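[SOLVED] Need 3D model of a two-part complex

Original post:
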Amino acid sequence: MTRKRRRMWLLLLCGLGLGTATALTLTAFQDNLVFFRSPSDILGGVQAVPPERAFRLGGLVEQGSLERATGADGRPAARFRVTDGAHAIPVTYAGVLPDLFREGQGVVTLGRLGPDGVFRASEVLARHDETYMPPEVADALKRAGHWNPQGGAAPPAATWNTLDPGRAAGPPGPRS
Amino acid sequence: MDDASTRTLPAGGGAAPPRRSAGRGLHRFANPGRFLRLSGRILPWLTGAALAVLAVGLPWALVFSPADWQQGETVRLLYIHVPMAWLAMGGYLGLAIGSAIALVWRHPLADLACRELSPVGAAVTALCLATGSLWGKPMWGTWWVWDARLTSVLVLFFLWLGHAALVRAFDDAERGARMGAILALIGVVNLPVVKFSVDWWNTLHQPASVTRINAPAMHVDILYPLLACALGFTLAFAALVLARTRAAVMERRIRALQVAAARRADA
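Solution:
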C-alpha cells in the first residue's frame, strides 16, 4: 500500500468516525436542540414541562382568536391562541407585537404556562415561512378565493409560481 | 541570474517548463509556473463575467424586482443574504476538498489556495450573518436568537476565522497548512447541520425556499434576480480567491529568489 493510499484511508476512516460521533451526539440532544415546542408537545404529553418553567411555544396564531386591548399601565396587550392544528393554547402578552404578526402567521412566544392553562408570554417573535411573492400575486390568489392568509400557509408553489400572471390568478388548471 | 535562481528553487518552483510535459492526474496542476500561466489567462475573463453579471443582477434585484406582499422592501436583503449563505457553505466545501487534496497528495498549490480562501470565506459568512440580523429585527422582532440554523452558521463563521488564523500561526508554513487542513476537515460535519437544521429541528429561521425538492416557494419575479445575484457573487468570489492565490504563488517565488540571491552573495 502506498503512503498516499494509506493517508487516504486514514482520512476516510477518521471522517467516518467523526461523522458517526456527531450524528449520535445530535440524536442524543434532539430534545434540547428544538427552538420551540408545539401545543401538541405540551398538551399531548409528549414533552411534559414542569409548571412555572419558562419555555418557547410555537405554532400558528389561530384564526379569529386575536383580541387587542390596552393594559392597565397603558401598554398594548394582546390575547390570542397558538395552534398546531391538533391542539391550541391561549396566550396573553403585554407589549408591541412584531410587524409580521397576524392571524394565520407563525409565531414563537417565550413565557410560562400558568396553572390555569394560559401561557403568559414575555416575548413574541413572528416566524416567516418560506413563501416569497409580489403583492399582485398575493392579491390575485386572494381574489380568486384560492388562498386566505388568515387560514395559514400559501397553497403549493406549483399552482401560482408561473411566468403567466393569468394562470396564477385562476383556479388550478387541469395541468397542475 | 535566471540560471542560478531556477536551480536553487524547490521542485517545481521555477518558471522553467516541467520536465514531464504532462504529469499524472492532479500533479499536472501542481506546477506553479503552469498555474500562473493558466490562471493569468482565466482571471480577466472571470472578473469581467462577475462584473457584468453583477451589473445586471444587482439593479434588477435592488431596484426593479417587486417587493414582497408581506415583507415589503425588506425582502431586498434576501438578494445579498442568500448568495452569501450559499457561498459560505459552498466555499467551505471547496476548502474541505482542497484540504483533503493537500493532506493526501501533498499538493502545495492546494495548501496555498486554502490559505487564501479562508479570509474571503469568513468575510462572506460575516455578511450573511449581518444581513440576516438586519432582516430579523423588523421581520421576527429580534436581532438574534440561538436557534439551530443561526447557531450553526455562527459556528461556520468561527471555523472560517479559526482556519485563517491557524494556517498563519506557525513559523513553518507547511506545518500551519497541515493543521489548517485537519481543522477544515473536522469542520465539515457542521455543513449538513447548517443545511438541514431547519428540517431536523424547530427553528425560528424559515425552511429552504429555493434548494428543495418541490418547486421553489418563491415567485419567479423574485427568484430570477436572486439567481442572477447568486451567479454574480459566485463568479466574484472565485475571481477574488484566484487573484489571491496567484499573488501568494508570486510572493513565494519572490521569497525563493531572495533566498537564492542571499545564498549567492554568501558564497
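Edit: The longest strand of chain A covers residues 119-127.
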